[in-house]
Amino acid sequence: MRRARRIDRELAEVYPYAHPELDFENPFQLVVATVLSAQTTDLRVNQTTPALFAKYPTPADLAAADPLEVEEILRPTGFFRAKTRSVIGLSAALAEDFGGEVPGRLEDLVKLPGVGRKTAFVVLGNAFGRPGITVDTHFQRLVRRFRWTDETDPGKIETAVGALFPKKAWTDLSHHVIWHGRRICHARKPACGACPIAPLCPAYGEGETDPEKAKKLLKYEKGGFPGQRLKPPQAYLDAGGRPAPPLGSG
């Protein structure tokens, strides 16, 4: 527990501006964007959702949309037919069962089409300020590398890791770990030689340990490239982060 909490403290210093990397202005936009982020990058979702929300700004609007028109907008995100069914379905459920408002309870959120626990915790933590652990692929990979747990089932990972940290820290913890996984501790070739928590990591050496070679593996702002949000928080910009380009800009 002490080592796990120290790793999180170190990551918090590396990523003090860590935030959800999906652009959103309200809980409805966040739940839709999170559903769309399956099997694609947050960057691609952020490049796609402006057109979606401009045309369908409310759950009632999207629930009544022509599926073929929605499919055309969502095509760049991949699996666009299934995603169209999900976002139209969850919009209809919001309009019919929740008065057009996104519910702030886990048990209600997971009843929406396309919304599982991971998506629900993203929404609860970032739209409602209610702590939750987001067990995505990056989180699963890193907590096993950190030896926080050997579990492979997302639900069991959530329970095991949650026991190591106070509940109030869960949302920020998720951001820290996911950001580190996207920028430095990659799946195929982690940049161990450029990792700020290397002395604490039991998996050090699984990736490139040469500092100069490791630096070339860094992604997003750590490697000098734009982040994933078109409209990132000011703290991210103040820290030297750059907004992502809109869809079609090359």
UniProtKB/TrEMBL annotation:
Chain sites annotated for binding [4Fe-4S] cluster: 185, 192, 195, 201
Cofactors: [4Fe-4S] cluster
What is the recorded name of this protein? Endonuclease III
Q: Which family does it belong to?
A: Belongs to the Nth/MutY family.
The EC number(s) this enzyme carries: 4.2.99.18
InterPro entries found in the cross-reference section: DNA_glycosylase, Endonuclease-III-like_CS2, Endonuclease3_FeS-loop_motif, Endouclease-III_FeS-bd_BS, HhH-GPD_domain, HhH_base_excis_C, HhH_motif, Nth
The entry's function note states: DNA repair enzyme that has both DNA N-glycosylase activity and AP-lyase activity. The DNA N-glycosylase activity releases various damaged pyrimidines from DNA by cleaving the N-glycosidic bond, leaving an AP (apurinic/apyrimidinic) site. The AP-lyase activity cleaves the phosphodiester bond 3' to the AP site by a beta-elimination, leaving a 3'-terminal unsaturated sugar and a product with a terminal 5'-phosphate.
Q: Looking at the Swiss-Prot or TrEMBL record, what is one Pfam family this protein matches? A: HHH
Keywords, alphabetical: 4Fe-4S, DNA damage, DNA repair, DNA-binding, Glycosidase, Hydrolase, Iron, Iron-sulfur, Lyase, Metal-binding
Which NCBIfam families would you find in this protein's record? nth
Q: Which CDD domains match?
A: ENDO3c (cd00056)
Q: Which reaction does it catalyse?
A: 2'-deoxyribonucleotide-(2'-deoxyribose 5'-phosphate)-2'-deoxyribonucleotide-DNA = a 3'-end 2'-deoxyribonucleotide-(2,3-dehydro-2,3-deoxyribose 5'-phosphate)-DNA + a 5'-end 5'-phospho-2'-deoxyribonucleoside-DNA + H(+)
Q: How is the cofactor bound?
A: Binds 1 [4Fe-4S] cluster.
Q: Where is this region: Disordered?
A: 223-250
Domain spans labelled HhH-GPD: 36-183
Cross-referenced SUPFAM superfamilies, in alphabetical order?
Answer: DNA-glycosylase
